[in-house]
Amino acid sequence: MEKLGINFAALLAQVFNFILVFWALRRFLLQPLLKLLQQREKKIKHGLQQAQEAEEKLAQLKSKIKKARAKIKQEREETLQETKKEAEKLRAEILAQARQEAQEKIKAALKELEKEKRQLQEQWRQEALEVALATAAKVLADSLGEKEHRALIARSLERFQKTITGGEGEENKE
């Protein structure tokens, strides 16, 4: 190999130096660097795993929130429906009570009107009777003489006394 210009001792020294440098680099530089890269890879894997777990938890939470919102919405709708039903029931009760009170007031007013009607009829009857009696008295007074008029008054007084005393006394002598 000397013919090629290669010194075997120098080649061997260079190979030895290369192996020594390779070993030193591997031992002091490459191994800590690989160890550092492995630790970094573990951290990244761990971070990715935590991110995936967090994403799953987030998805679960979103699902729970969605279910809770749906449940709250349903409960709200049910409460609203119940409130509407109760309000309608209360409205119907109030209307029924108002109708009943109105009917009672109408009945009372009708009774009062009927009472007033009877009173007015009685008053009119009394007034008509008084007018008839006054008219009859005037007609009789004009048509009867003084003696006949006194006799008529006497007979009327007798009849009146008999009706007051219950028919006791003399019979009518007409």
Task: Describe the fold and architecture.
The protein has 174 residues and is mainly alpha-helical. It has one domain (8-165). It contains 2 helices and no strands. The longest helix is centred in the middle third of the chain and has 136 residues, at 8-143. It is rod-shaped and about 200 Å long. The model is unreliable at 168-174 (pLDDT under 50).
Question: Could you provide a short overview of the structure?
Answer:
Helices cover 90% and strands 0% of the residues.
What is the number of E strands? Answer: 0
| H/E element sequence | HH
Mean pLDDT across the residues is: 85
Q: What fraction, in percent, of the residue positions are helical?
A: over 70%
3D shape: rod-shaped
Q: Assign the structural class, choosing from mainly alpha, mainly beta, alpha/beta, alpha+beta, or little secondary structure.
A: mainly alpha
Number of domains: 1
Alpha-carbon distance between the two ends: 196 Å
**Residue windows where pLDDT falls under 50 for at least 5 positions:** 168-174
**Tally of helical segments:** 2
Write the layout of secondary structure elements.
Elements: H1 8-143, H2 146-165
Note the main attributes of this structure.
mainly alpha; 174 residues; disordered C terminus; 2 helices; single chain
